[in-house]
Each structure stands twice: as structure tokens, then as C-alpha cells.
Amino acid sequence: MKAHVVLAHPEPLSFNGHLASLARRTFEERGWSVTVSDLYAMGFDPSERAAFYRNLQNSERFDTQSEQRHAAMNGTIPAEVQAEIGRLDQADLVILQYPMWWHMPPAILKGWFDRVFVYGEVYKSDVRFDKGRFQGKKAMLSLTVATSAETYAFNGRSGDIDLMLWPVNFTLAYVGFGVLQPFVAYGVESGLRYSSSGEIEERLQQIQANYVDRLQTIEEEATIPFNCLDEWGADGRIKASAPAHSPFIRHREHLEID
Ligand SMILES: Cc1cc2nc3c(=O)[nH]c(=O)nc-3n(C[C@H](O)[C@H](O)[C@H](O)COP(=O)(O)O)c2cc1C
């Protein structure tokens, strides 16, 4: 089995950097092969723009999807993007390792999606979701947050973690990955501290033990359900007969908030 870890953290000695190394070690001890894209260390530029493309289709006005498709058709996808797609193609499991920053992934990871999930290469209208390029592979978010699991509960002050992660998971599902439940490391306090050093140290030890435990059997886990391509009507809405899996895509009778 092959795992690929995408690390989005500026500091290799951070807890995020540590969890990426821990995943690598754990999988290698299990006989898997592992690749890591440390986006900051690679100097990955996340700001998609015309300058990345030689042989532009339209040099007067940059249209991102048109130029991505043009590059895919002409073999001019930027080398660093092609290399990332190659690593995803090789992997059975992809882990995105990042800290929660302003309720979202760091910009470098958002830009990785913008650049690497190339229109015309990674997705097309009929190559998405259950028919996506990466079907048969699994992906998982592994993230750290500063506050407790309670604050990320359905009624917590940091916001419901399942809802907050839905757009990122949906993006992975869009390109065909089976998406595993995220591994969320709660209470990873750094500069802004609510707990004593002893409490934090004990918590971090527990998180590492839980992570290693989970990685031992991760290939057996079930994926989060998302709708399939044929569950959409011609109007782009979910068919009445199709199951709804989240508040992001629901049936009319589920519109009320309790
Ligand atoms: C720019 C920035 C924004 C942050 N936003 C959040 C946030 O929205 N929610 C949260 O729980 N923690 C937030 N934090 C705290 C980080 O999530 C926390 O420091 C990190 O997960 C610790 O992991 P590390 O030691 O590997 O950096 C933020 C930190 C930074 C630097």
C-alpha cells in the first residue's frame, strides 16, 4: 500500500510537522511506502495565475479553467503540478495534514487544490464524484485545532467541525476520493494558551497515541457518504429519491434549523 501525505505548515518542528512524520513512520513500519509533499519546504506557490502557463490559449485575458484545460490537452501542465498529480495517482491513501487557520485550511493548501485539481486533467463534467479520477483511492484530513472537542460540537462556540470540514471533504469527493472521517487533534494550543504546559504535553501524547492506533487499521475504515452523479436531476438539484447526507445538500423537509 502507498500513502501520500500533504503537509501544509511553515514549521517542520511544529506539531503538524510531527504528525506528518509520525504517519510516515507508522506506515513504513507497517510495510507501506510513503511520499510526503511538504508544501512550504517545496516552495509551492499557491496563487494560480497566467505566469505558470507557457503557450497560453488567450494571452489577453487569463481564464483559469480554459487555460488549465488547454494545458492538459497540450501537455503543458506546470511541472510541479504534474508531479503532485503523479503522487496522487500512485497513492492508495492521501492524508492532508494542516492546522485550522481562521476556520479553514492555510492558504497554501487551498491554493494546492486550485492548482493541482486541474480542469481537463483531474476533473471534467463526466469525470467527477463516483466517476472521478481518483476513484478507488481514499483521502483523509488530519488537522490540529487550538480549542477543545466541546467547542467544535454541534452547539460549540468554534462551530460544528463536521460542517466546517464539509467543503474540504466535498472537494476530495468531487475528484473521486473516498473520504474518511477526519482525524481532528483538539486542544493543540501554541501561542494562545488556555492550559498548563503539563496538560498540553499530556494531551499531545494522547493525540499521538490515538493517531498511531487509527493508522494501524485505517484501510478497513468506511468512507463518508456523498451523493453519486446519477442522484442529481437535470435541474442540478438532488433527486427526491436520493438520500441527503448533510445540511449542505438536503431535501426541502430538512430546511428548518431546530
Ligand atoms: C492564522 C491563524 C489562525 C488560526 N485560527 C484558528 C481557528 O480558526 N480555530 C482554531 O481552533 N485555532 C486557530 N488557530 C490556532 C492553530 O490552529 C493552532 O495554533 C495549531 O493548530 C497548532 O498546531 P501547530 O503547533 O502545529 O502550529 C489559528 C492560528 C493561526 C496562526
TrEMBL record:
Gene3D superfamilies referenced in this protein's UniProt entry, alphabetically: 3.40.50.360
A single MF term (Gene Ontology): NAD(P)H dehydrogenase (quinone) activity
InterPro entries linked to this entry: Flavodoxin_fold (IPR003680), Flavoprotein-like_sf (IPR029039), NAD(P)H_dehydrogenase_qn (IPR051545)
Keyword Protease among UniProt keywords: no
Superkingdom field: Bacteria
Domain Flavodoxin-like fold: 1-208
Pfam families: Flavodoxin_2
Gene Ontology CC: one annotated term: cytosol
Keywords assigned by UniProt, alphabetized: Oxidoreductase
Family of the protein in this entry: Belongs to the NAD(P)H dehydrogenase (quinone) family.
Name under which the protein is recorded: NAD(P)H-dependent oxidoreductase
Species this protein is from: Denitrobaculum tricleocarpae
